[in-house]
Write a structure and sequence with these properties.
With about 425 residues, this protein is mainly α. Among the domains are: about 110 residues, no CATH class; about 100 residues. The chain is built from 11 helices and no strands. It starts with 7 loop residues before the first helix and ends with a helix. The N terminus and C terminus are likely disordered.
């Protein structure tokens, strides 16, 4: 509150003074007008009591106003203390945040530095890769240009390379697998490829291929694999062939003749039957008009069959290896074993002997050519053509480089 503004108590006092002055003036006027009348004091007392009560109320209001002012002042101090405490806590939290920001800033700086180093390494690697890609693209362009030259100049050279491949495979089939028929087919396919080219300069090579085909056709066409399969089938049939061995006939018991009757009157016949059965158990005599065969034990039979199987297996291995002498000797031994120990009058043995004789009459000797004449001719022809192509491409590259140098010199002169 400012000094210029009056308080509630002062205003109340001024009002009471004014009222009293007015009352005195009124009383004086009334005394002057009615001097002879008697003055009444009851209203003055009421007015005084009213003024006293009014003064008390004004004082109470002033005290209440002062109390409220004190309360507001205490509230202001309490609020200011709370605000100061909040400000201090905020300042402490801000300081903590600043320290965290400083530490995180150092971490970010380290991370940024490491990231920059990684970026530099990656840039160097990318530069190296770019150089490699550029070199690869240049090599690819050069290869494309060479392929374009090859495909544009001589498209028939692919057929020539295919013919050379077929001839080489025919040689491998001939010397590694002894497959003459497949080798002949491949040589014929190579000749058809050269014929498709339609180049008269290839006639000498085709002549050599024809000579190689004729040489292969002279080779024995017998398939050794077929002979080996036939011998394998014969080996499995050896176990069923009958041997020349003594067979002991089985004793047939005449049980019906030696049965005893139940009648007492047949006691004599029963005694004779009993005697005959006892004699048959000990002695049995049989007659035969056939020639006596030697007796073979089980081990001897097994040994003879295994010897025949071994001879046929040796013949099979010799046929696959194309060893004619061993092949014939093994079949001869098999025929001897068959004639010596097996029943030749049996149909199975007779067919087996005929199969062995047929195999002995089959020749397995093959005279393969030492080399194919067309292989070297095709190789020389392809190398000559490739050399010509690369020489032409190198000559073109030199011409283009010389032209570029001339252009650069012309630009420098200008």
């Amino acid at each position: 509150m400012s000094d210029k503004e009056p308080t509630h108590s002062e205003t109340a006092l001024e009002n009471t003074d004014n009222v009293m002055e007015e009352a005195v003036i009124i009383e004086s006027d009334s005394e002057q007008e009615e001097t002879p009348k008697k003055v009444k004091t009851g209203g003055l007392w009421i007015f005084s009591i009213f003024n006293f009560l009014l003064i008390i109320g004004i004082c109470c209001a002033a005290v209440w106003t002062w109390y409220q002012w004190q309360q507001t002042q205490t509230n202001k101090t309490d609020n200011s203390a709370k605000i100061e405490a909040q400000i201090e806590s905020m300042e402490s939290s801000i300081a903590k945040m600043d320290s965290r920001l400083v530490s995180s800033g150092s971490v970010l700086a380290d991370a940024k530095q490491e990231q920059n180093q990684q970026h530099e390494v990656l840039r160097s690697e990318i530069d190296e890769l770019a150089q490699k890609v550029a070199l690869a693209s240049d090599e690819n362009k050069a290869l494309k240009s060479r392929i374009a030259d090859l495909s544009g100049r001589r498209p028939a050279d692919w057929l020539l390379a295919e013919a050379d491949y077929l001839v080489r495979i025919a040689g491998r089939k001939l010397w590694l697998e002894s497959d003459v028929s497949t080798a002949i087919l491949m040589m014929q396919s190579a000749d058809s490829r050269l014929e498709d080219i339609g180049d008269p300069s290839l006639f000498p090579v085709r002549t050599l291929i024809a000579e190689d085909i004729a040489a292969l056709q002279k080779v024995n066409p017998v398939s050794t694999s077929s002979l080996a399969l036939s011998l394998s089938g014969m080996i499995s049939q050896v176990q069923d062939l009958p041997l020349n061995a003594l067979k002991i006939p089985e004793i047939e018991e005449n049980a019906a003749q030696n049965e005893l009757s139940d009648s007492v009157s047949d006691w004599r016949t029963n005694i004779s039957k009993t005697w005959n059965s006892l004699v048959d158990d000990f002695i049995q005599v049989e007659t035969s008009d056939k020639p006596i065969l030697p007796y073979l034990s089980t081990k001897q039979r097994w040994l003879i069959t295994e010897q025949l199987k071994l001879a046929l297996s040796q013949a099979k291995s010799a046929a696959l290896a194309e060893q004619e002498s061993l092949y014939l000797n093994s079949l001869q031994e098999a025929a001897f074993l068959l004639k010596e120990h097996f029943q030749l009058d049996d149909s199975a043995v007779m067919q087996f002997a005929e199969a062995i004789q047929e195999l002995r009459s089959t020749s397995i000797s093959k005279d393969y050519p030492s080399q194919l004449k067309s292989v070297n001719a095709l190789k020389d022809l392809i190398e000559e053509r490739m050399q010509n192509v690369f020489n032409n491409s190198a000559f073109k590259n030199n011409d283009s480089s010389n032209g570029d140098m001339n252009n650069k010199l012309g630009e420098g002169a200008l």
